Amino acid sequence: MTDYIAQVKAFVLDEFLPDVAGNQIDDDDDLLAGGVIDSLGVLKVLAWIEDEFHVPVDDLDFALENFRTVSAIASFVAATQSVSDVSRS
Question: How far is CA 33 from each of CA 2, 58, 68, rounded to the nearest angstrom?
Answer without folding.
Answer: 24, 24, 8
